[in-house]
Amino acid sequence: MKKTLLQRVLHERAPAARLRQLDAYPWVIVATVCIGAFMGQLDTSIVSLVLPALEEQFNTSLHNVQWVAIIYLLVLTGLLTPLGRMADEFGRKALYTGGFIVFIVGSALCGFARDLPMLVGARAVQALGGAMLQANSVALITAAVPRDKLGRAIGVQATAQALGLGRHFVQAQLQRPGQPDDARRIERPASQPALLAPAVDLGLQA
């Protein structure tokens, strides 16, 4: 059966036999997936802490700045199912690796946003990357981990999600009084784990 152009572009090589024979190989995949799970949830909650600061910074109402948080959730939830279906059709690994790239680009745009519309647009790009990661995470784990260890592996991934969701609420409690918040500043460190994308590509497709 002739492959479409998109199928050829997203064609996945099987992992090298020498890698698959390693006892630690399934947990390398789990660790890789946990990076994406952590980042996706981190950016679900990260901006809600700084909405008052954004309101002051952009000299606008809370009604407007709340779209910085809302747009991420809208794009993420709206794209999870179609991207999951797309991964089934064209391959999970390439789509997952591409999610890191899109997430890095979105985070960089957030960091350099000059006004509120640009920040909202950058958050939408970031959410697209997050959706590409989250739509594939459990499927990648299921394909790589033996059945007798699958429950533990999915539990580790769920823990990574919970840590990402709660990290900034803990940080807010530890933050010194009067220390300024800036969504553009906090988006930069949020993208740092995504710089491991080249290593992810090696781990999943070598």
What does this structure look like?
The protein has 206 residues and is mostly helical. It contains twelve helices and no strands. Helix 3 (25-45) packs antiparallel against helix 9 (137-144) and helix 6 (67-90) packs parallel to helix 8. The two termini are 26 Å apart.
Features:
mainly alpha, 12 helices, about 0% strand, elongated, disordered C terminus
Got a strand count?
A: 0
Query: Hey, roughly how much beta strand do the residues contain?
Result: under 5%
Helix content: over 70%
Mean pLDDT: 76
Main sheet specs:
none
- Spans of at least 5 consecutive residues whose pLDDT stays below 50 are 183-206
Indicate the overall shape: elongated
Gist of the model:
The protein is mainly alpha-helical and 206 residues long. It has helices spanning 5-9, 17-20, 25-45, 51-57, 62-65, 67-90, 92-111, 116-134, 137-144, 150-174, 183-190, 197-205.
List the helices and strands and how they pair.
Layout: H1 5-9, H2 17-20, H3 25-45, H4 51-57, H5 62-65, H6 67-90, H7 92-111, H8 116-134, H9 137-144, H10 150-174, H11 183-190, H12 197-205
